[in-house]
């Protein structure tokens, strides 16, 4: 152990006494910051109403601070304290406007993630905390709360012959969802824990229907995403609200409502039609986290340039010794070759990490600040996520440096090792985010190459209830951040083990 | 630690080239041992094997009874100068020694001590890329001395040194040996080791040709011939032949005498009042002895290639 300490100190002395290596490592960090700053400064956004410039609209924020879409038709009344809302859904239908293949007709079809059901919400304000138990177009019963949480109930679809009973029971901050096919035998769907429900809440029925998304492979690779207006209509009866409910009529709100489409103007406006105890509600919209905005990791676009510089630094830490014959001196001073390699890896990895950390810790906050000043909407993320992007990306830079060092020890020739290191780290991620590579291949590149580690940069997750297309081109990685990081760790460890084996076996 | 180098039965082959072919010898402390042989005889490979850089196909090399790779802080046991040109050109001489010192847990002031010892203090803070070969040799020797080791291996330390440097290094080697250290110095030129090495390991084609003391080698190479110049050649020849010597006529007025030492020749001629001009005992030089020994072991000789 003491010997390792000596060799570690020696390797650090070696590194810091070559001015070229210090300059290059510093330049790598500066490059990332500069490229991020140039990118941020060059992006502007402005909005106007008529001739007047106004602040661009921003999406509402959910209870967790994330940007959300919160649009639906809500028929509600006040509930003060605990209580139960029950209703029977006898029909869920819808229309999709001008879908493929010919885009020339309005098709009567319910969107898969359209919802009709019960909701308890802190208020009619978009973004307010809620729990919703609903039948979906094609995904069965779902209990969702606070935009990012969702559990599934029984599958199936509703019709007059096969209605579905829904019940939502509030007890303090806990909401329990039940479903039934006959109104007698009830099955628990799950328990929701909305973060911020006041004592007095809005309770009632809702209908939403998100845009219909289709993705086509472009003829030159890449993909074309299309989104079109849809509307859903739910028919409820046997509606009851038990508990400390205020009496009076239902109140109606098109929460987060938008300007009416032609379909809504001329065919079916959103809203409630009551006939006896039968309530027919039509609505559109999406209740989900919003990913429409700038992802903060986008300011790190210069990372790959800095990374190539650091790869060269890491490779040279070993190949320059081979070129000059210094490796013999190193191995005479440290005949335990595995220990020498480990000391080199720690120094090179630490240099990469620190250079990466300086780069990300400056670029991310400064870049985001500049972008926001320029009117760009940067999606808000929790502090923990921002820290993960900053520190995780720095750790990826450190690990890529270790991988490059190991390849240097394997190949012993600088240019070969640099090309190999770039080919397995930077190249896959550039290809995967280039629009001309088929998406399936892109996903595999980001799963099975060391480039999987770049997943730690992804600040916006793919939520289970999110509508839309999430491709690598848009910054969505196939693996979760820490799984991707683990793949990179595995590759770095493997390369280091191979380098250690060869270093011990070969004559110096 | 018993500071002996023991090389036993080393064999090493690179493809079809045999580099070491049963190299065996022992180096003992207290004297400078010359390790000589023509280029390609296996000197460098042997030294690299001793310090664990090359793994032999067979045999072993021990330092103080231990395999080099098992030594802790190895530079405090063995100091080695293998290739003086092996330096990072961008690093100063002092920093080169500094990282080496750190690798052995040695303090920074030790670096300044050895720099002073080899006379490189004034150039220590210059980039090694600008050093002359002589300066690199001095830096390499400083590196070998850094851990104050009882064993020193120096591969061709005379290369590139000016005459003053050669005098300096000869003195240094003798001092180190006088301290009781084991000093193994390789060279392909025997003349460099004259007056320095007390013992010689002569190698050729990957194996030891001779392992002997310098005095012994010189005596063996000298065959005891005496050359005599005299105007009375016939008279001298008869006197000496009667005393039991083998005599032969040489060029002009010279006679070559074998079987009698020079002082006896002088005494006999004086006794018989035979006039003579010059008596010269033939004594082989170390270089001649070396040439004689390695004649068969030279890898490449002009005229040999077809």
Brief summary:
The complex is a heterodimer of chains A (508) and B (306). Chain A has 508 residues and is of the alpha+beta class. Chain A is 38% helix and 27% strand.
Give keywords.
heterodimer, A: 508 residues, alpha+beta, 14-stranded antiparallel beta sheet, two-stranded antiparallel sheet, 27% strand, B: 306 residues, alpha/beta, 6-stranded mixed beta sheet, 4-stranded antiparallel beta sheet, 13 strands, elongated
Helix/strand order of chain B = EEEHEEHHHEHEEEHEHEEHEH
Q: Say how many strands of chain A there are.
A: 20
Task: Find the count of extended strands of chain B (DSSP E, 2+ residues).
Answer: 13
Q: What is the alpha-carbon Rg of chain A in Å?
A: 29 Å
Low-pLDDT sequence parts of chain A:
none
Determine the number of helices of chain A (DSSP H or I, runs of at least 4 residues). 11
In percent, how helical is the residue content of chain A? 25-40%
Indicate the radius of gyration of chain B in whole angstroms.
24 Å
Assembly context of the chains: heterodimer
Alpha-carbon distance between the two ends of chain B: 52 Å
Major β-sheet profile of chain A: 14 strands, antiparallel
Average predicted local confidence, pLDDT of chain A: 92
Uncertain parts of chain B: none
Number of helices of chain B: 9
Share of residues in strands of chain A: 25-35%
């Amino acid at each position: 152990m003491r010997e390792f300490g000596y060799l570690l100190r020696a390797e650090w002395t070696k590194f810091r006494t070559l001015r070229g290596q210090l300059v290059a490592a510093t330049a790598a960090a500066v490059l990332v910051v500069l490229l991020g700053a140039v990118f941020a400064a060059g992006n502007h956004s402005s909005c106007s109403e008529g001739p007047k410039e106004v602040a661009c609209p921003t999406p509402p924020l959910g209870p967790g601070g994330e940007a959300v879409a919160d649009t639906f038709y809500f028929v509600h009344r006040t509930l003060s304290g605990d209580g139960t809302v029950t209703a029977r859904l006898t029909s869920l239908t819808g229309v999709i406007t001008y879908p493929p293949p010919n885009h020339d007709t309005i098709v009567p079809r319910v969107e898969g993630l359209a919802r009709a059901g019960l909701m308890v919400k802190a208020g009619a304000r978009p973004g307010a905390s809620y729990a919703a138990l609903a039948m979906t177009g094609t995904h069965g019963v779902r209990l969702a709360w606070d935009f990012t949480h969702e559990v599934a109930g029984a599958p199936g679809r509703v019709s007059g012959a096969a209605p579905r009973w829904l019940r939502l029971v509030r007890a303090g901050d806990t909401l329990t969802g039940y479903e039934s096919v006959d109104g007698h035998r009830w099955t628990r769907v799950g328990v929701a824990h909305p973060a911020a429900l006041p004592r007095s809440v809005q309770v009632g029925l809702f209908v939403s229907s998100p845009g219909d998304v289709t993705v086509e492979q472009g003829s030159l690779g890449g993909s074309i995403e299309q989104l079109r207006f849809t509307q859903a209509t739910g028919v409820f009866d046997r509606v009851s609200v038990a508990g400390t409910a205020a009496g009076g009529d239902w109140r109606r709100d098109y929460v987060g409502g938008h300007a009416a489409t032609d379909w809504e103007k001329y065919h079916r406006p959103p809203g409630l039609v009551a006939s006896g105890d039968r309530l027919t509600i039509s609505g559109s919209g999406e209740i989900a986290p919003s990913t429409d905005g700038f992802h903060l990791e986008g300011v790190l676009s210069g990372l790959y340039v800095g990374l190539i510089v650091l790869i060269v630094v890491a490779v040279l830490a070993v190949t320059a010794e081979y070129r000059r014959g210094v490796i013999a001196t190193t191995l005479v001073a440290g005949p335990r070759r595995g220990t020498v390699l480990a000391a080199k890896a720690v120094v090179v990895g630490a240099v990469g990490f620190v250079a990466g950390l300086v780069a990300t810790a400056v670029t991310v906050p400064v870049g985001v600040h500049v972008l926001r000043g320029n009117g760009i909407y940067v999606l808000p993320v929790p502090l923990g996520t921002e820290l993960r992007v900053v520190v995780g990306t720095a750790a990826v830079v450190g690990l890529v440096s270790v991988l490059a060092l190991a390849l240097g020890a394997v190949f012993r020739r600088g240019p070969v090792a640099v090309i190999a290191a770039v080919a397995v780290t930077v190249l896959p991620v550039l290809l995967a985010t280039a629009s001309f590579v088929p998406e399936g291949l892109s996903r595999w590149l980001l799963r099975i190459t060391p480039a999987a580690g770049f997943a730690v940069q992804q600040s916006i997750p793919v939520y289970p209830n999110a509508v839309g297309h999430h491709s690598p081109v848009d910054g969505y990685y196939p693996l979760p951040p820490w799984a991707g990081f683990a793949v990179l760790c595995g590759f770095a460890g493997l390369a280091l083990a191979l380098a250690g084996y060869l270093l011990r076996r070969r004559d110096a | 630690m018993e500071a002996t180098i023991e090389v036993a039965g080393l064999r090493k082959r690179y493809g079809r080239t045999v580099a070491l072919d049963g190299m065996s010898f022992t180096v003992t402390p207290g004297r400078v041992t010359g390790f000589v042989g023509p280029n390609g005889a296996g000197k460098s490979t042997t030294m690299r094997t001793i310090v664990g850089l090359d793994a032999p196909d067979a045999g072993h090399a021990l330092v103080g009874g231990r395999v080099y790779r098992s030594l802790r802080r190895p530079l405090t046991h063995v100091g080695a100068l293998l290739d003086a040109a092996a330096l990072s050109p961008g690093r100063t001489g002092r920093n080169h020694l500094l990282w080496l010192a750190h690798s052995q847990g040695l303090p920074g002031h030790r670096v300044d001590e050895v720099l002073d010892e080899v006379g490189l203090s004034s150039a220590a803070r210059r980039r090694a890329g600008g050093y002359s070969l002589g300066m690199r040799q001095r830096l390499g020797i400083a590196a070998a001395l850094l851990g104050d080791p009882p064993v020193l291996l120096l591969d061709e330390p005379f290369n590139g040194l000016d005459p003053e440097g050669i005098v300096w290094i000869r003195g240094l080697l003798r001092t180190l040996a006088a301290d009781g250290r084991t000093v193994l110095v390789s060279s392909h030129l025997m003349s460099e080791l004259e007056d320095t090495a007390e013992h010689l390991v002569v190698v050729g084609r990957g194996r030891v040709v001779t392992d002997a003391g310098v005095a012994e080698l010189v005596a063996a190479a000298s065959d005891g011939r005496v050359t005599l110049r005299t105007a009375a050649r016939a008279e001298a020849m008869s006197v000496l032949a009667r005393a039991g010597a083998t005599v032969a006529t040489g060029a002009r007025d010279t006679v070559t005498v074998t079987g009698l030492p020079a002082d006896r020749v002088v005494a006999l001629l004086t006794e018989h009042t035979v006039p003579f001009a010059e008596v010269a005992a033939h004594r082989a030089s170390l270089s001649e002895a070396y040439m004689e020994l390695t004649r068969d072991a030279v890898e490449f000789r002009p005229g040999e290639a077809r």
